[in-house]
Write a structure and sequence with these properties.
With 708 residues, the chain is α+β, with helices and mostly antiparallel strands. It contains 25 helices and 20 strands. The N and C termini lie far apart (120 Å). It catalyses: Preferential cleavage: (Ac)2-L-Lys-D-Ala-|-D-Ala. Also transpeptidation of peptidyl-alanyl moieties that are N-acyl substituents of D-alanine.
């Protein structure tokens, strides 16, 4: 009986246990059903509520090389510290990290502004900041008549200098770091400090666990091994603090740039930004709803920017710059040269448009010390223009021939032109005789050009009588000159090229001045394009400063394959008969190689058979010291265009020396510079040919000798 009773008790307890388990499971199943059926979609959306945030990491920019593969612009690596803010990071958390980091590195505080100090003071002294607001103002705030911004503005306004003086040097350093933290975007690395010392780099690396968001990395800066040579043309880039230029912000953002990306600021760096910037590495950060990074996925590896191979010959460029410097200094020692402060030289292949040299120098007074120093001003070849004088007479002759104002057999006797109630207009010296257009170019007859201009303007010249011309003759001349590149942009692959200035008045005497290059203004690059057009037989070639684009080689020890080659571009063909152009070429040859030519004294002995045209223009000084005078002082501009050899041109040249001297006579720096420059070009060419011949004749040492 006892055994049966005990068995019944055990069975009852087991049944009770099973029943309890059954009820628990039933409740669990019921609960799971409710969760899945009723709230399932809501919970699923909550669980899947993550964000895929793609972050672009910058890469080094492309390099620049000259035509001989000499490095002109490079990248230099430096250790750097970055901060990446998570989406949910609070201001207090960033401040704590900034305080820790400030103990490990030195951060310059020059960039800290007064507003930054006030913001930081409020952040560090919240109770004292509240006391800056009166009870009445707090009441208005509670009544929503003042909002948070209004309260904060009042606090900022009432922070005193005494309050800010309480910030220590350590506080300012923390603030400088915090300022960098706060300027970045969520999940985007922000450079906190560049050029980190080895000690700082090691200290930060060892404490990264205590510095959430902070990392050590490699940053890249632009390096110019041959600086300052050509520096104004190479341009510059923005720094990481400046980021994208405000005026181009929308453009860059639409092209997947980040706001703190460094981009080309000017000239070549700007013109070829799309090429040099490279393909940034793309990393996808997968975050939860709180902004915590759950996973990171590399979408694409970055590639540094493509490389540019320029048309510039840096050996020649450096040599020409030295010549300009030396001759400027010599010329400044001559009398009446107080305004002389610059000179320019352009060397160009007349058949391809490749610019071998684009040199310019300017004497500038330091604003602080008052000491004068020589600065690079290569940019002045496209950004400044001048009256150039007789150098343009080749275009005047061809305009006359093309319009029928003169024919190849036309001659004029060189006697002064006298128009009623005006000063006589004559050539630079008397007794030049009766001239055809070739000899008129040789001796630089102004009178021949005056008579040509009168005929173009359909005027009738009578001694000491009024002269009437058709004002449309100005358009005829300017349209004709434009065919050579004078008075219009040359099309060079650089931004902000100027076209020069055109005179407004259209009086008869001014048309005569135009014909001898003493009215409209032209850039040195336009002169180079003009003389190249004559040298090559009438094709206006687009000047090119970039020769090739090449793929980058990541080991930085070599140069990659060609992506794009820039072929010569003929912008237009001059409307002139070939024999007319050949006649102007002969006139230019006589200028430099025949006794009596205006440049014979400088170039008559040259073995490379040059041709060209000198220019001297009466002008008015309009340089940096113009504000010191009530009226612009009169000066002389000197110019020179040329090419060589005359019968097979391989190099075209333009020289410009503005504001060379005051008075009617002075130095001839244009011819001196031109002769030295062409000599240097052919000397370098000969030296390279000799070196190449010697290298080709040197036995190879690659293999071992058969005999010991």
């Amino acid at each position: 009986m006892g055994k049966k009773k005990k068995t019944k008790q055990v069975s009852f307890r087991l049944n009770l246990l099973f029943f309890a388990v059954f009820m628990l499971f039933s409740m669990l199943i019921l609960r799971l059903g409710i969760v899945q059926i009723v709230y399932g979609e809501d919970y699923k959306r909550e669980i899947e509520r993550t964000e895929d945030v793609t972050v672009n990491s910058p890469v080094p920019r492309g390099k620049m090389f000259d035509r001989n593969m000499t490095t002109i612009v490079d990248n230099t690596a430096s250790d750097a510290i970055t901060y990446t803010r998570s989406q949910g990071t609070s201001t207090e958390e960033m401040l704590k990290v900034a305080e820790r980091l400030a103990k490990l590195i030195y951060k310059d505080t020059d960039a800290v502004r007064e507003r930054d100090k006030k913001d930081y003071w409020i952040l560090k002294n919240p109770e004292r900041a509240k006391e800056k607001i009166t009870e009445a103002e707090w009441d208005l705030y509670k009544e929503k008549e003042l909002d948070d911004k209004a309260i904060y503005d009042l606090q900022l306004e009432r922070i005193t200098e005494k309050d800010l003086d309480q910030l220590t040097d350590e506080d300012l350093e923390i603030l400088a770091i915090f300022r960098e933290f706060n300027s970045g975007y969520a999940l985007t690395p922000q450079i906190v400090k560049k050029e980190v010392s080895a000690k700082e780099y090691a200290a930060v690396s060892e404490n990264l666990e205590q510095l959430p968001g902070v990392d050590t990395t490699t940053d890249w800066d632009r390096e110019y091994p041959l600086k300052p040579t050509l520096s104004s043309v190479l341009g510059g880039i923005t720094d990481s603090n400046e980021g994208l230029p405000r005026e181009s912000l929308e453009y860059y953002l639409s092209r997947d740039y980040s706001r703190n990306d460094r981009v080309g600021r000017s000239y070549l760096e700007l013109q070829y930004e799309d090429v040099l910037h490279g393909q940034k590495a793309k990393v996808k950060n997968i975050t939860d709803k709180a902004g915590n990074v759950l996973d990171t996925e590399v979408i694409t590896e970055g590639n540094r920017g493509k490389d540019l191979v320029l048309t510039i010959d840096m050996d020649l460029q450096i040599a020409v710059e030295k010549i300009i410097e030396e001759e400027l200094v010599k010329a400044k020692q001559q009398p009446r040269t107080r305004f002389l402060d610059r000179a320019f030289v352009v060397l160009m292949d007349p058949f391809t448009g490749e610019v071998l040299t684009m040199a310019g120098k300017q004497i500038v007074k330091d604003k602080e010390t008052g000491v004068r120093e020589m600065k690079d001003f290569a940019l002045g070849n496209i950004s400044t223009s001048y009256t150039v004088g007789s150098a343009v007479k080749g275009a005047t002759v061809l305009t006359g021939l093309n319009t029928g104002a003169i024919v190849p057999s036309t001659t004029f006797h060189d006697t002064p032109i006298v128009i009623k109630d005006t000063k006589p207009k004559s050539s630079w010296r008397a007794g030049l005789g009766t001239l055809d257009y070739k000899n008129a170019l040789k001796v630089s007859s102004n009178v021949f050009m005056y008579r040509t201009a009168i005929n173009v303007g359909e005027g009738v010249y009578r001694y000491n009588q009024p002269l009437s011309i058709n004002p449309k003759a100005f358009d005829t001349f300017r349209n004709s000159f434009a065919q050579f590149g004078l008075g219009i942009r040359t099309g060079i692959d650089l931004p902000n090229e100027m076209a020069g200035f055109k005179g407004f008045d259209r009086g008869p005497g001014l048309l005569l001045d135009f014909a001898i290059g003493q009215y409209d203004t032209y850039t040195p690059m336009q002169l180079a394009q003009y003389v190249s057009t004559i040298a090559n037989g009438g094709n206006r070639i687009k000047p090119q400063i970039v020769r090739e684009i090449r793929e980058p080689i990541m080991d930085n020890k070599d140069i990659g394959p060609v992506v794009k080659t820039f072929e010569p571009v003929v912008l237009n063909k001059v409307d002139a008969e070939p024999e007319w152009i050949a006649g102007v070429q002969e006139g230019f040859r006589r200028v430099m190689q025949v006794s009596g030519g205006t440049a014979y004294g400088s170039f008559g002995s040259a073995s490379y058979k040059p041709a060209g045209k000198t220019g001297t223009a009466q002008a008015f000084y309009d340089g940096p010291e113009r504000g010191n005078f009530n009226e612009a002082p009169g000066v002389m501009n000197l110019s020179l265009v040329g090419y060589a050899p005359y019968d097979n041109p391989e190099i075209a040249m333009a020289v410009m020396v503005p504001w060379a001297y005051e008075g009617n006579s002075g130095h001839t720096a244009n011819s001196v510079i031109g002769r030295r420059v062409l000599d240097t070009y052919f000397d370098i060419k000969k030296a390279r040919q000799t070196e190449e011949t010697e290298n080709n004749n040197t036995p190879s040492n690659d293999g071992e000798s058969e005999e010991e």
